[in-house]
Amino acid sequence: MAGPNLFLSKSDLAYAELRDRILAGTLPAGSRLAQYDLAESLNMSITPLREAIRRLSSEGLVTVETHRDVRVSVMNSNEARQLFEVRLSLDPTAAELAAQRRTDDDIATMQAAVDKLLPVTRQWGEEALTAHRAFHRALYRASHNDVLIRLLDDLWDKSDRYRRLGLELPPGDEPRTRDLQEHHQLVSLIVDGRAAEAAQLMRGHITHSLTATAISALEDREGIRVT
């Protein structure tokens, strides 16, 4: 997380810290937030912490049941599918724009990121997820569309909880060599300026992602049958 000096207020600091912990799973879904303990650990009063909680509640990351009872929102198939559906639209658009607008610096950043990729499997865990996120961010930043970049940053943040769930499922042990190959193919298509092909490959890539695996598992858990 960025240093405290970059934040405008203690509320901003509390918001960023709690959001990071929720998305990383350090504060698990369904867990109760011990507000006074958290405020003490962050070296602040309860007021800025509660302001941060209100922001997190507006994003759907926490549920405020009473003034004192605040819990990390549970993960559910409806949210996972909504995130997935929007990514299925925006990620291919970003790949297409990247193929049209990439600079030499963008290409160098993408190539450096793809060289650091690891299989996104249970074996590699957080290290692989971090490298995977860095690669996709390098790609969609090459779109040079600031609105799209902000939207995808937020979508990727909120999807991280579902990716971690995907790693816990049986497919989390698979080598996922297809993913690695597709990442290299995406870079090649973008470097070559083949925009439509990059968008098509990205759409298939998202369709077979860990988030898609997590959606199926959650729907089974919730007894939902999608036809």
TrEMBL record:
Gene3D superfamilies with a match to the protein in the record: GntR ligand-binding domain-like, Winged helix-like DNA-binding domain superfamily/Winged helix DNA-binding domain
Keyword Transcription regulation belongs to the record: yes
Keyword annotations: DNA-binding, Transcription, Transcription regulation
One Pfam assignment: GntR
Protein name: GntR family transcriptional regulator
Recorded superkingdom: Bacteria
Domain HTH gntR-type: 8-75
Species of provenance: Streptomyces plumbiresistens
The UniProt record lists the keyword Metal-binding: no
Listed PANTHER family: GLUCONATE OPERON TRANSCRIPTIONAL REPRESSOR, TRANSCRIPTIONAL REGULATOR, GNTR FAMILY
